[in-house]
Design a protein that fits this description.
- By secondary structure, the protein is of the alpha+beta class.
- It has one domain.
- A hairpin with a 3-residue loop joins β1 and β2.
- The chain starts with a helix and ends in a 21-residue tail after the last helix.
């Protein structure tokens, strides 16, 4: 249940911010928030990260729908709060960007994602849904390397070579 609550909250935040950006900014407009360190810059991205795969919007939509379907199907296996957060972030972010693909022109899975965050020194403009997906990926790696299972237990460490077995 946690996965779906987190996803719903993140989805609402994402779509609310995007609606505010579209309503209050013109395409290409930049508004400084923290000088040049953080700016709002309204762009539409038909591709993926760094505007890659711009000619394959329909394929990106299918990937997002596949991720959404997988998380919903896989959710019943999650027994850990921290893994629930990870999958909630993935689901919320994927839903936010997939929604853009359907509701933004030209629609029908071909629409552009609204991007609006520009950070000094980072070569791309992105949105909060992207932040959540990237945060989930980082947490996924941390949990995996730390041996945290989907039920929250840890994989016991292997004894070092040459050490007595216990």
């Amino acid at each position: 249940m946690l996965i779906f609550v987190i996803a719903a909250v993140l989805y609402a935040i994402d779509q609310g911010i995007k609606a505010a950006v579209v309503a209050s900014m013109s395409l290409g407009q930049t508004v400084p928030v923290l000088g040049e360190v953080l700016q709002l810059r309204y762009l539409q991205n038909s591709g993926a990260a760094f505007s890659s795969f711009s000619g394959y919007t329909w394929a990106l939509t299918l990937v997002a729908l596949g991720v959404i379907a997988f998380v919903i199907w896989f959710a019943r296996r999650i027994r850990s709060v921290v893994w629930g957060v990870v999958f909630g972030f993935v689901l919320g972010g994927a839903l936010g960007n997939a929604t853009d693909r359907f509701i933004r022109p030209p629609g029908a899975g071909q629409g552009s994602v609204v991007d609006y965050l520009q950070v000094w020194g980072f070569p791309a403009v992105f949105n909060i849904a992207d932040v959540w997906v990237c945060t989930a990926a980082a947490l996924f790696l941390i949990l995996t390397f730390r041996g945290v299972r989907l039920d929250g237990t840890r994989i016991p460490p292997r004894p070092a070579a040459g050490s007595p077995a216990t």
